[in-house]
Amino acid sequence: MGRYLTGSIHLKSNVTIELVEGAVLVGSTNPFDYDRFEAINDRALIMAEGVENIRIIGYYNSGGSIDGQGRELANNCTDLVHKGLINDRLSNDRVAESHRARLLHFRECKNVEIDNVTFRNAANWVTMYDQCENVRVNNVRIHSTVFWNNDGIDIVDCDGFLLTNSYIDASDDAICLKSHTNKKICQNVEVRNCTARSSASGIKFGTMGAGGFKNVKIIHNTVYDTYRSAITIQSVDGGICENILVDSLQSINVGNAIYLNVGARRDKPSSMEGITIRNLYCEVAATKPDAGYDYEGPIEDLPRNISPCGIIGLKDTKIRNVTLENIEIVFPGGGDPHYAYRGLDQLDEVPEMPKAYPEFSQHEELPAWGFFVRHVDGLIMKNIKLKALKKDYRTAIVLDDVTHHQIDKIEVDEPERKNKDFIFERK
Fold first, then answer.
1. 94-111 mean pLDDT
2. How does residue 219 score in pLDDT terms, banded at 50, 70 and 90?
3. C-beta of residue 246 within 8 angstroms of C-beta of residue 292
4. Which residues contact 181 (CB under 8 A, 6 or more apart)?
5. Contact between residue 137 and residue 111 where contact means Cβ atoms under 8 Å apart
6. Who's near 291: CB < 8 A, 6+ residues apart?
7. Contact predicate 190/162, CB 8 Å
8. Domains in the chain: boundaries
């Protein structure tokens, strides 16, 4: 019980932190109270590197909590920059991530367990598991919307990671898989029965994907009030993305339902193959879905009407073997050609953007309101229901350079559609 103020805590092998209900570890607001990892330029409140058999366990009902006082810490970092005690260029009027401590950062650790703990108010990514093996995270609650770059859970190049029964509310990506090195792959990961809310994306692969992602299951999760995509899978940094299953995802009041993207930000080509998304229900917002939260996502890439789902590869690097089955998405509709227009005869004007930071809105106006699919080899769309609440000038589904596809049982509900085709294909 009680509140305990501390700077960095280093866990050694075979150590367990026990937090009973009412106990709070409170992070210092002094940036100089946090240590750096030797190999990387990152700070954290709870740190571990190269150790095994470590645990943080909460006892009695909701267990204890870890509070980073992130807003105060970040503001103190900025103040020290102005005083000349920290050297930083203050990009976008905020101090660099290397000065802002995460709440938890485990690096190259084995046999990790986190259970029944609450994490609050980080100045940076909240919890990060980097190149770890055999990690079990269960029943954690993350409430962190007090500053930028507040990813909830970052799973980076881990092998064997199970995240279950958790709640994440973050001002940046809520649940995020990453691959920081081309010598590793983020693989054998399962995210099950979690709820996420974000002013970025709910569940995201990337953006960094140097080695890539393989054998990942995203099962029975919920995303709500999220500014960007409910599920976004990206391969843009030379890595692979293979054998990904998203099953039973429900998303309410989000900016976008599904975004799959292959890019080429580095010299080595990226790839994406074997993506299955099934049993998904989504309601896409007509207005900003994270309005009113402390740190909202930026208004960007205008003018454009509400974006469709995107499955967008590159001409020379197609996305391969995508299955969409039992999908129901409700869109606001109302695409207005007088606000922003791109017709079916203007597909060549949709930019490829292989070097861009990948977001569902990056292509600005698209000629579809439901799905825009480009440069894909092997596509199954089965039992898909698309509903527009208002009449839209655009076509529901646009296929551009899509080969070996099977389209079956598509239902489109759009006011005043009459004889308008629901699908357009350009080979």
1. 95
2. very high
3. no
4. 131, 157, 210, 211
5. no
6. none
7. yes
8. 151-426
